[in-house]
Design brief:
The structure holds three protein chains of three kinds. Chain B is α/β, with parallel strands linked by helices. Helix content of chain B is about 35%, strand content about 20%. Chain B starts with a strand and ends with a helix. Chain C contains twelve helices and eight strands. The chains are: A alpha+beta, B alpha/beta, C alpha/beta. Chains in contact: A-B, B-C.
Chain lengths: ~400, ~325, ~325
C-alpha cells in the first residue's frame, strides 16, 4: 500500500520531506512515525497506516511532494503491496483507505489502534457527519486533543475545495457549517419568527426638511459628523418619549404574561458587518442632542465593527432601528430581535411623485416600516407611533447641541 | 389578580393566610410558629387570625409532629408543617420516607395524604454545619414525595398554594438567604403555580446553566460578569426536584451545546447528576464538552465567615467555569 | 363498667372474636408452610384478649393504628378475611392490592388507618388522628397498639408528650409480652411495669391482665369514655404473652421454658371459655361449634384467596402512589 501525504490543514498543498525515520526493509507497526515532513504550518510526523514492512521510499529527504501524493510504499502481511491511489491532490486519507481492498492489522494491534482513536465531542461528530468532514483531517484543541465544534469551523475547507467531500461516495452537494456569527443570526431570526407574533405598518415620510436641516448642521460642536441615522434616532427617541408604552418589552419567566421596561428611552441600532450584523443598544437618548447621539452612535458602531461590544451595548431595549437608506431596497420589513418588541426599518431614500393640495409634485423621502410584537403593540398604537414619528421627521425641529 | 412586589417571606405568609382562609381543614404546626410567628417570621399574623387550634406551637419533637401530620392527613385534615431548619428533617426522616411517602402505596391506594412540609434551609448566614443544608439531595430517591424548591417570591407564593391544595405529600424546600429578596408576585385566590418543572429565567446562547434556590441568583450574577465579555449564558431555574421536568434544559442545550449545573450541596448525590444523565440522554449529539457541575466541597459547611463564603459557589467561580469551558 | 355489666351478647362477641383471631393466625401459619405466605409474618397467638377486648370496646368511628403484628386488631374491627388472606398471599384482591403484605393491613373504612413496620412509627400518627378527633369534636378516640419494645424509641416519647400536652383523646395500648423481638424486657428497659413510662408524661395509666378479655374491655371502655369527654389520653399496659416466636421463622428458644409453660397455661381463650361455661353463658358444645364454624369460614377464605390472581405488573403504579 501507499504511504500517502495527508491534508493536514485547509491551506496545505505540498509537503517537504525532512527526515526518514525508517529505511526500506524495516518492519513498521500501525501508528508508528515513519517520516518527518514539513508543511506550510509546521513539521509533523507521518505515521504508518498499517503493520508491515517499509518496502520503498519514493520521496527523499529535501524533496517536495503534493498533498495526497505517495511518500513511499509498505508491504503488508497479506503480501501484495496494494494498488497505488491515483486520485490526485484532492484525495484524503479517507479515500486512501476506501481504495484499499483490505484493512490489515488494525485488529491485530489493539493498543496501537487505541492511539488512533479519534476523540471528538458528540456535537462535533454529528456536525462533521452532516458536513461531510472527515474527523481524521481535523486537529482537536480540546482536552486530550478532543475535536470540538470550533475545531470543525477552523478545519472547514475553503469553498473551492469541495472536491474533498466528493471522496465520500461522489456526492456533489456543497455542505459546509456556518460561521459562528451567521449561525447565531440564523438562530435569532428563527426564534423571533417562532416566538413573536409580528405585524408590520408602513409610512412614507418626506425627508426634504430633514435634508435641509442636515445640510446646515453638518458637524456638531464636538466635531462629530451628524448623519441621517443620528437624526432618525433623535426623532424616534422623541416619539418614544411621547408614547412610553412602545418601551414595553415582553417579560420572560413570570408565571403570568408580563411586561417590563427599563424606563429609559433606549434604541438598538442595527450595524451591518461584513458577514452579518450586531445590534448594540444606545441608552438613554431622551432629550439628547444630535451632537451626543452622533458620538455614542459612532462609538457603538466602531465597537460593533471589531466585534467587541460592551456590557452596556447588551442592555435590553424595546426597539431597534435598521437604516438601509443607501441600499437597493425601497422598503423592507425587518425581523424583531427576540427580547425587543419592535423594529423600525428605513428604506432607500429616493424621489417620488406625490400629490398634495390638489397638485402633483416631486419630493424625496423614505419608507418607514415598523414591525411590532402584537402581544404588546396593537395596530392603533403602532400606527399612532408611526404618525407621530412622521410628523416629527417632517415638521419637527432638531436639537443640535 | 394583582401583581405585587413582595419579599419571599411575605409571599409565604400571604399564601398561608389565603389558603387557611379558604379551607377550614388546613392547619399549621411547627416550633415557635404561633404567637412568635416563626423564628423566620414565616407565619407572622397567622396565630392572631386563626387561633391556637389551627396554628400550633409544637414541642421540639419533629418525629412526633410530622407523624401527627400524617395522622391528620388520613382523617380529613390538610396539615402544613414548618421545619425550622431543613437540617432537622434528619430527625423526622423515618416518618417522611417510611410512612408519609409510602403510606398510600402500602394501603393499595386506599388513602390520600394531603400534607405539606415546609423546611427552611440553606447556607450563607453563618449558622454553622448543622443549620445550613438545603436538604435538596436528602430525599431525591424517595418515590411518593413531591419536592419543590422555589427561588423567587412568585414561586414561593404560588407553589405553596398549589402544594396545600394538592392531595399528595409535598416537601417545599425554602432558603433562608432568599427570605428577604423581593420580586413581583401574581396575588389572587386561585393564583396557583403548578409544580411543573424547570423554567428559563435568562435567555442566552453560549452555555446553559441549571441552578436552584439561592444558586439561581448567583448564576444571574455570573451572567452579568460574562456579558461584559460578550458571553451570554442561558440560566434555568430547576424549581422542582421530584419529579424533574427538564424539557427546557434539553432545548437549551441543543442550542448552546454546553451544560453547567450550580448546586448548593456536595457533588456526590446532588441533583446535578440526574440533570446531566437526562441531558446526555436527550441531547447527546448536541454536547460539545462534558457537562460541568459546580457544587459544595465534600465537607460540611464551616462556620467561619470567609470559609463559608468560600465553599458556596460564587458568581465569579461560576463565570470562571463557563469561561474555561468556552476557551480555546 | 364491671364484669357484671358486660352483656351476654357482648361476651359472646368477645369470645367469637378471640376464636376468629386464633384460627386465622393458625391458618396463616399453615399457609406459610405451604409457601402461600412469603417473606415473614408476625402472629399474635396468645394476645387475642387484647385485640378483642380493646377493639370491641370502641365505636365504629374511632381510629386505630397498629403494628406489623396487627392481624388480630384488624380482624376484631371486622376486615374481610378473604381480602386479608389475599393480601398475605400477595394477590390483587388483597386488602392493600398485594402491595403492603402482612405488616401493613389497612382498611380506612373501618378506621384502620395503617399498620407500621417501623417500631413506634404509628404512635405519632395516632396522635395526629387524636388531634383530628379533638378538632372535629364528635367524640372520637384514636387508639394505637404497640409492643413493649416501642416504649424505648423516640417516637413513643414524642407522641406521649404531645398527646398529654394537648390533652388529646388517644389511648396508648401497650401489649407487653415481655420480649422486644428476641430480647427480654429486663435487658432493655429499667422496669417491667411499663405504666411507669406514663408517669414521665403525667399521663393517666392503667395496668391490666392482658389475657383477661373482660379486664381489657373494661379498661379500654373506661379510658375511651374519659377521652371522649376531653380529659385526655390514657396509657394502658396489657400484660400478655406471645405463644409463638417473634416471627414465623423464630422458634423462640431464647425464652425460659418455665415462663413459657406458665403463660401457656393462661391461654386467654381457654380462660374465657371456662369462665363463660362456669357462668352458664356458653356450653362446651356451643364453644366447639363456634370454633368449628370459624375454622370452616377461615378455610374457605384462605381457599378463595389462593385462587385469586397475582397483581398486574403493568398496572398503573403511579395511581397507587399519587392521589
Amino acid at each position: 500500500m501507499d504511504l500517502v501525504v495527508p491534508q493536514l490543514s485547509s491551506t496545505m498543498e505540498t509537503a517537504r520531506v525532512i527526515r526518514w525515520l525508517k529505511k526500506p526493509g524495516d518492519s513498521v507497526r500501525t501508528g508508528e512515525p515513519l517520516v518527518e515532513v514539513e508543511t506550510d504550518k509546521s513539521a509533523i510526523d507521518v505515521e504508518s497506516p498499517a503493520d508491515g514492512v517499509l518496502s520503498e521510499v519514493l520521496v527523499h529527504e529535501g524533496e517536495n511532494v503534493a498533498v495526497g501524493g505517495s511518500l513511499g510504499r509498505l508491504r503488508t502481511p497479506d503480501g501484495a503491496p496494494g494498488p497505488t491511489t491515483a486520485t490526485g491532490a484532492s484525495s484524503t486519507p479517507v479515500v486512501a483507505i476506501a481504495a484499499e481492498p483490505k484493512m490489515p492489522a488494525k485488529t491485530e494491534v489493539p493498543s496501537a489502534a487505541m492511539d488512533e482513536r479519534i476523540k471528538s465531542s458528540p456535537l462535533a461528530r454529528r456536525l462533521a457527519a452532516e458536513a461531510g468532514i472527515d474527523l481524521k483531517t481535523v486537529r482537536g484543541t480540546g482536552p486530550n486533543a478532543r475535536i470540538r465544534k470550533r475545531d470543525l469551523v477552523r478545519a472547514m475547507p475553503p469553498s473551492d475545495r469541495q472536491a474533498a467531500s466528493t471522496a465520500r461516495g461522489g456526492s456533489s452537494s456543497a455542505v459546509r457549517p456556518l460561521s459562528t456569527m451567521r449561525a447565531r443570526i440564523a438562530e435569532t431570526v428563527s426564534a423571533s419568527r417562532k416566538i413573536i407574533p409580528s405585524f408590520s405598518l408602513d409610512r412614507w415620510v418626506e425627508t426634504t426638511q430633514l435634508a435641509a436641516a442636515r445640510a446646515s448642521i453638518a458637524v456638531g460642536r464636538n466635531g462629530e459628523r451628524i448623519t441621517v441615522t443620528d437624526m432618525l434616532l433623535q426623532a424616534v427617541a422623541d416619539s418614544l418619549a411621547k408614547m412610553p408604552s412602545m418601551l414595553d418589552r415582553w417579560f420572560e419567566g413570570a408565571p403570568h404574561p408580563s411586561v417590563t421596561t427599563s424606563g429609559t428611552v433606549d434604541i438598538g441600532l442595527v450595524v451591518a458587518l461584513e458577514n452579518g450584523l450586531l445590534v448594540p443598544t444606545l441608552s438613554d437618548l431622551a432629550n439628547q442632542s444630535l451632537t451626543h447621539i452622533a458620538r455614542v452612535r459612532r462609538q457603538a458602531v466602531e465597537r460593533a465593527r471589531v466585534g467587541h461590544l460592551s456590557a452596556a451595548d447588551h442592555a435590553p431595549t424595546s426597539i431597534a432601528l435598521s437604516n438601509l437608506g443607501k441600499s437597493g431596497a425601497d422598503r423592507f420589513e425587518a425581523i424583531i430581535n427576540p427580547g425587543q418588541s419592535s423594529i423600525l426599518a428605513v428604506g432607500r431614500e429616493h424621489e417620488r411623485a406625490l400629490a398634495g393640495g390638489g397638485k402633483v409634485y416631486a419630493a424625496s423621502g423614505v419608507n418607514l416600516t415598523l414591525s411590532a410584537d402584537h402581544r404588546l403593540i396593537d395596530g392603533k398604537l403602532g400606527a399612532d407611533f408611526l404618525g407621530l414619528l412622521a410628523q416629527r421627521i417632517e415638521h419637527g425641529s432638531w436639537r443640535i447641541d | 389578580m394583582t401583581t405585587q412586589e413582595m419579599t419571599y417571606r411575605e409571599a409565604i405568609v400571604t399564601a398561608l393566610q389565603e389558603e387557611m382562609r379558604r379551607d377550614a381543614r388546613t392547619l399549621i404546626m411547627g416550633e415557635d410558629i404561633g404567637p412568635s410567628g416563626g423564628p423566620f417570621k414565616t407565619c407572622q399574623g397567622l396565630y392572631e387570625e386563626f387561633g391556637g387550634q389551627r396554628v400550633r406551637d409544637t414541642p421540639i419533637a419533629e418525629t412526633g409532629f410530622v407523624g401527627a401530620a400524617l395522622g391528620l392527613a388520613l382523617t380529613g385534615f390538610r396539615p402544613i408543617v414548618e421545619i425550622m431548619f431543613a437540617d432537622f428533617l434528619g430527625v423526622c426522616f423515618d416518618q417522611i420516607v417510611n410512612s408519609i411517602a409510602k403510606h398510600r402505596f402500602m394501603s393499595g391506594g386506599q388513602v390520600a395524604v394531603p400534607l405539606v412540609i415546609r423546611a427552611i434551609g440553606g447556607a450563607g448566614q453563618r449558622f454553622g454545619p448543622q443549620h445550613s443544608t438545603t436538604a435538596e439531595s436528602w430525599f431525591l430517591s424517595v418515590p411518593g414525595l413531591t419536592i419543590a424548591c422555589p427561588s423567587t417570591p412568585a414561586d414561593a407564593y404560588g407553589m405553596l398554594k398549589f402544594a396545600i391544595r394538592a392531595d399528595n405529600p409535598v416537601l417545599l424546600l425554602e432558603h433562608k438567604a432568599l427570605l428577604g429578596t423581593k420580586g413581583p408576585v401574581a396575588v389572587g385566590r386561585d393564583e396557583l403555580v403548578p409544580l411543573d418543572g424547570a423554567r428559563v429565567v435568562r435567555r442566552g446562547r453560549d452555555a446553559t446553566i441549571v441552578a436552584s434556590l439561592a444558586m439561581v441568583g448567583r448564576a444571574l450574577g455570573a451572567a452579568h460578569l460574562l456579558s461584559t465579555d460578550g458571553i451570554e449564558v442561558e440560566i434555568i431555574d430547576l424549581r422542582v426536584l421530584r419529579t424533574m421536568n427538564l424539557e427546557c434544559v434539553f432545548e437549551s442545550v441543543r442550542r448552546t451545546n454546553l451544560l453547567v449545573t450550580v448546586e448548593e450541596q456536595a457533588q456526590l448525590g446532588g441533583w446535578g447528576a440526574e440533570v446531566v444523565t437526562q441531558v446526555v440522554h436527550e441531547a447527546f449529539d448536541y454536547l460539545d464538552a462534558p457537562p460541568e457541575r459546580i457544587c459544595l466541597p465534600e465537607y460540611p459547611v464551616p462556620y467561619s465567615p470567609p470559609l463559608e463564603d468560600g465553599v458556596i459557589p460564587s458568581a465569579e467561580r461560576i463565570a470562571a467555569a463557563v469561561r474555561s469551558l468556552l476557551k480555546d | 363498667m364491671t364484669t357484671d355489666e358486660i352483656s351476654k351478647s357482648m361476651q359472646l362477641k368477645l369470645y367469637e372474636s378471640m376464636v376468629q383471631i386464633r384460627e386465622f393466625e393458625e391458618q396463616v401459619q399453615r399457609s406459610f408452610l405451604e409457601g402461600l405466605v412469603q417473606g415473614t409474618t408476625h402472629l399474635c397467638q396468645g394476645q387475642e384478649a387484647v385485640c378483642a377486648g380493646a377493639c370491641l370496646a370502641l365505636r365504629e368511628d374511632d381510629y386505630v393504628t397498629n403494628t406489623y403484628r396487627g392481624h388480630g386488631h384488624c380482624l376484631a374491627r371486622g376486615i374481610d378475611m378473604e381480602a386479608a388472606f389475599a393480601e398475605l398471599f400477595g394477590r390483587s384482591t388483597g386488602l392493600c392490592a398485594g402491595l403492603g403484605g402482612s405488616m401493613h393491613f389497612t382498611d380506612v373504612r373501618r378506621g384502620l388507618l395503617g399498620a407500621f413496620g417501623i417500631v413506634g412509627a404509628g404512635l405519632p400518627v395516632a396522635v395526629g388522628a387524636g388531634l383530628a378527633a379533638q378538632l372535629a369534636g364528635a367524640g372520637q378516640v384514636s387508639v394505637t397498639f404497640f409492643g413493649d419494645g416501642a416504649v424505648n424509641i423516640g417516637a413513643f416519647h414524642e407522641a406521649m408528650n404531645i398527646a398529654q400536652v394537648w390533652r388529646l383523646p388517644v389511648l396508648f395500648i401497650c401489649e407487653n409480652n415481655l420480649y422486644g423481638e428476641y430480647t427480654r424486657i429486663n435487658f432493655t428497659t429499667p422496669f417491667e411495669n411499663l405504666v411507669k413510662r406514663a408517669d414521665g408524661y403525667a399521663m393517666n395509666a392503667m395496668m391490666v391482665d392482658g389475657n383477661d378479655v373482660e379486664a381489657v374491655f373494661n379498661a379500654v371502655s373506661a379510658a375511651a369514655a374519659a377521652a371522649r369527654t376531653g380529659t385526655g389520653p390514657t396509657f394502658i399496659e396489657c400484660k400478655t404473652y406471645r405463644q409463638r416466636g417473634h416471627s414465623r421463622t423464630d422458634p423462640a428458644k431464647y425464652r425460659d421454658p418455665a415462663e413459657v409453660h406458665a403463660w401457656l397455661a393462661r391461654d386467654p381463650i381457654t380462660l374465657y371459655r371456662e369462665k363463660l361455661k362456669n357462668s352458664g353463658t356458653l356450653s362446651d358444645a356451643q364453644a366447639d361449634d363456634i370454633v368449628a364454624e370459624w375454622r370452616r369460614q377461615i378455610l374457605a377464605a384462605a381457599k378463595g384467596a389462593a385462587g385469586a390472581p397475582f397483581p398486574d405488573p403493568n398496572q398503573d403504579f403511579a395511581a397507587r402512589l399519587f392521589a
